[in-house]
Amino acid sequence: MRFSFAFSALLLGELAYAEYDARNAFKKAERTIPATPEHPRLNKRASPFYTEKTKRFWVNGKAIPDVPFDVGESYAGLLPISTSKNETRELYFWFFPSANPKASGEITLWLNGGPGCSSLRGLLTENGPFTWMPGTFKPVQNSYSWTNLTNVLWIEQPVGTGYSQGVPNITNEVELGLQFIGFYKNFVDTFNIHKYKVYITGESYAGFYVPYIADAFITANNTDYFNLKGIAINNALIGDRTVAADAVMAPFVNHWSQLFFLNQTFLTTMNERAAACNYTAYVNKYLRFPPPQEKFPLLPPLYTDPVYTCDMYSDISEAATLVNPCWNLYHVTETCPRPYNVLGGVNDFDYVPPGLAIYFNRSDVQTAINAPHVNWFQCTDVNVFANQPTRSTNYSIGNDKSPGPGRDGALQRVIEYTNNVIIGSGNLDFVLPTNGSLLSLQNVTWNGLQGLQSYPGKPFYVPYHPEYNGGSQAGAGILGSFGTERGVTFYQVQLAGHELPGYSPGAAYRVMEMLLGRVKTLDESAGPFTTQPYGNFTKGGTIKKRGARDL
């Protein structure tokens, strides 16, 4: 089957597929459930994690600056990447145990990308127990926190990222993986979580990190420490940068032309350049289901062309910004005004109000979470891959010398070892469009065949939330599509952007349930969220909401 453009058409009428009346349910819930409880009641239990070894990492959940509620049990601080007495390189972590009984004996790791972007960004704006979204007044409880499902560890890595300490000296992902497993072994010993099942997750450039780290877990061959059970990545770079982005950007703009609203002269020139750069023919030949059973050739590097003729990314970004000065390449529907972010800016166009105190740069916050008092950046200006020349190949980003994990066998080994790999994409992401992820995946061979044999077009159904929390809402019903073949699930969410768990937290929550083995599929037959069997969404999670009788 040939599929020249892989976005599925999601019909509004499909929402009627669900039998749940969300609007009336929300009205009812508003009468009984406070939207922002001032003093939520915590699940009380003896903690197996608080010991002589770990008490120096304990965080007072009632004393997180500007957070008006108890975030629950957590531990944070620095641990070295080796057992050497002279080791100066340390990674910063924040660990939140879950009160869910099903979380016993398992842990999920979360990594943001970059390279060099802090995983605290994911904690605070995507999947942590409290979130502080751009443009909002203060943090709120996250009804879709992954800690409701399992124990979660956010890690700032590699060395040089966030609060992590030391001088970066890695040159590739294999070295990164070795440093990471050194840190994680120390974490396991410190918190006594030997033999725990490990699930590794992340987004964006973590499409490199996660498979390579998972491959390092496999190579270590020690399930006392590295008991890998699956990985999940979204909006992830897993292959060649040109294939994953520039090659598919013209069809992306054509598909969303009413959102971009670029003039016809620009669109004509854009499509002519895509054809001249061999992008159009490449996509038409290789983005098929099933794909040609052959290794796809590399496209010419962008940076060897002195005038960057085939750099579609930059030219389209500039044109889009002229039409919409607040255009967001991570979620292309956004317009002015641009909301500020308490984490500060990442790109030149990010709005940082004069005098804004970057949250994780505040000394009171750093003291509260056992962080070093250093100048914290959401994405570091330090090169975390040391002593490498400027980008010399079309897959070398941030001076990482490694090829994509989909090209060198790392991703294949992880799939065949776990048979539990989930790859997702938000369809409104311009940085790494859905078609680029699919095109990269079609170049990977696993379990006897190359790529997906059928287009992942089954309806992705997300359950409705039975409680109302005005500060933490998510879409429900049919939000996208998915498919599962030979141990790999690929899904897409129509209205999500680059940071998928932030834009569509309900969808990400359901994906986590599948990764952990709580549900077997992403369609409607999976039923309600596993944490709401009796209508209480956060039952078993870190924070328990008050019912009507508690008011």
From TrEMBL:
GO terms for molecular function: serine-type carboxypeptidase activity. The keyword Glycoprotein applies. It comes from the Eukaryota. Its EC number is 3.4.16.-. GO terms for biological process: proteolysis. InterPro entries: AB_hydrolase_fold, Peptidase_S10, Ser_caboxypep_ser_AS. This is Carboxypeptidase. The lineage of its organism: Eukaryota, Fungi, Dikarya, Ascomycota, Pezizomycotina.
